[in-house]
Design goal:
Helix 1 crosses helix 8 and helix 3 packs across helix 7. This protein is of the alpha+beta class. A hairpin with an 8-residue loop joins strand 1 and strand 2. The protein has two domains: about 280 residues, Zn peptidases (Aminopeptidase, 3-Layer(aba) Sandwich); about 70 residues, OB fold (Dihydrolipoamide Acetyltransferase, E2P), CATH 2.40.50.100. Bound molecules: zinc ion. Zinc ion binds next to loops.
Length: about 375
C-alpha cells in the first residue's frame, strides 16, 4: 500500500495542483485502475473511492489482493477549483471549453505502424508490445495546456491496465454502466456485481471518453492484425452512480463493495466466499438510447417517474412556457417504447437540451455517437 502525490505542471504563478495516487497489491502482474471525479462536479464517485480505499487497505492487510490496484480518488483537481458563486462547474475546462472526459483518444494508426514489424504468434508478447507502445505514445504527448497535462498524467497511470473503471454520475438517474460492445460478458459481470440492471454497450470506434480511450486501441489494432492474437485486452467501463445528489454513506458502501465483488469475480481479489450474483441486466446499445430533447425554453415538469416503462408516444414531461399571454404547456412524448432512466435537474430548459433518456430496443443514434457533449 502506498500513497503518492503527483504535481501537475503549474498553469499560473503561485498555484499548484496535484493528484493523489493510492496503490495496493502486488505489481508486475494484472493491473486495475480506478478513478473518480474526472467530471469534477460529480461527487458520488469521490465518496465511493474513499470507501474503496478503506476496503482495499483491509484486503491488502489480509494478503488477499492478486493484482496491483491503482486508485486516483480525485482525478480532476483543475475542475474541482472551478468554483463560481459557490458552484463547482467541473464538466468542462474553463480555459479551453473542452469536456474533461473527451479528447484523450490515442493515435491507433501510429500504434499499428509501431507494432507491425514486431508482432508474433504469441498473444502475451503482442499484448506486452501494445501496452508498451501505448505508454510510450502517452509519454510523448506534447500538449502544454493544463487539461492536456492532466490527461497525459492520468493516461500514464492507466493506459497499460487490464481493467479500468471511471466513476461518474448523471443528473438524476438509475445507476447504469457504459462499456465497449465487444466485451458484453465482463460488462454483465460488473453490472451484476454492482446490482445494476441497465448496461449501455458502446461502439468504441467513434468518439470515445476516458474508458473508450483504453479499449479503442485494442479494437482497432486487432482489426488491423486479425491473424495475430492479443491476450488480455483491456476492459474499461464508466459507472454512472445514479444522480448528482446521490451522495450517501450507504450507497457508497454498497457500490464500493460491488466493485470489490467484481474484482473478486475476476480473480483479482482472493475471496473464498464470493458467489457470482445471478442477475439479468438489460443490455442496450448506446445507439438505442433515445435522447428526449426540449423543444422550447420553459420549466420542465415530469409526468413519469424514473425507472418507469414507457410505450411509444407516452407523455414524459411538459414544458411550461413563461412568455405566453395565457398559460400554455408543451407536451414531451417518448418516440419509442423503453425505460426512462435519466432526467435532468436543470428544470429551466433550452431548445435542444436533453431533458430525459429512454433505453429502447430501436436504433436512435448513429453508432459511435456520444450521448452527452
Ligand atoms: Zn461524468
Amino acid at each position: 500500500m502506498s500513497y503518492q502525490t503527483i504535481a501537475l505542471p503549474s498553469s499560473s504563478v503561485g498555484s499548484q495542483t496535484y493528484l493523489g495516487v493510492h496503490r495496493f497489491g502486488p505489481s508486475g502482474g494484472k493491473k486495475v485502475y480506478l478513478q473518480a471525479g474526472l467530471h469534477a462536479d460529480e461527487y458520488p464517485g469521490l465518496l465511493v473511492a474513499q470507501h474503496l480505499i478503506g476496503h482495499l487497505a483491509q484486503l491488502e492487510q489480509q494478503h488477499l489482493l492478486r493484482a496491483e490496484i491503482v486508485v486516483v480518488p480525485f482525478a480532476n483537481p483543475i475542475g474541482l477549483r472551478q468554483r463560481t458563486f459557490g458552484h463547482v462547474t467541473g464538466r468542462c475546462d474553463w480555459h479551453t471549453g473542452q469536456n474533461f472526459n473527451r479528447g484523450m483518444a490515442l493515435d491507433s494508426a501510429e500504434l499499428i505502424q509501431t507494432l507491425a514489424p514486431n508482432l508474433s504468434e504469441d498473444g502475451a508478447h503482442n499484448s506486452r508490445l501494445l501496452r508498451t507502445a501505448m505508454l510510450q505514445q502517452v509519454a510523448q504527448r506534447t500538449g502544454q495546456m493544463e487539461i492536456a497535462t492532466l490527461h497525459q498524467t492520468l493516461l500514464g497511470l492507466s493506459i497499460d491496465a487490464d481493467l479500468v473503471i471511471d466513476l461518474h454520475c448523471d443528473d438524476v438517474a438509475l445507476p447504469h454502466l457504459f462499456y465497449a460492445h465487444h466485451q458484453p460478458e465482463i460488462g454483465l459481470q460488473l453490472a451484476c456485481s454492482l446490482g445494476y440492471d441497465i448496461c449501455l454497450e458502446e461502439d468504441v470506434r467513434g468518439t470515445v471518453a476516458f474508458d473508450g480511450s483504453h479499449t479503442q486501441p485494442w479494437v482497432l489494432v486487432q482489426a488491423e492484425f486479425p491473424d495475430h492474437p492479443f491476450a488480455s485486452p483491456c476492459f474499461a467501463a464508466t459507472i454512472e452512480l445514479r444522480g448528482r445528489t446521490d451522495v450517501s454513506t450507504e450507497l457508497a458502501q454498497q457500490d464500493s463493495q460491488g466493485i470489490v465483488h467484481f474484482l473478486a469475480g475476476q480473480g483479482l481479489i482472493a475471496a473464498s466466499d464470493y458467489q457470482p450474483p445471478a442477475c439479468t441486466p438489460q443490455q442496450h446499445g448506446v445507439d438505442q438510447v433515445s435522447l428526449i430533447l426540449a423543444s422550447h425554453s420553459g420549466l420542465v415538469t415530469y409526468k413519469r417517474a424514473l425507472g418507469e416503462w414507457l410505450a411509444a408516444d407516452d407523455l414524459i414531461a411538459e414544458i411550461v412556457l413563461l412568455d405566453q399571454p395565457i398559460p400554455q404547456t408543451i407536451e414531451v412524448r417518448s418516440p419509442s417504447a423503453g425505460r426512462l432512466f435519466s432526467q435532468t435537474n436543470h428544470f429551466f430548459s433550452a431548445p435542444g437540451q436533453v431533458i430525459a433518456m429512454v433505453a429502447t430496443r430501436e436504433a436512435q443514434n448513429q453508432p459511435g455517437t456520444q450521448l452527452a457533449y
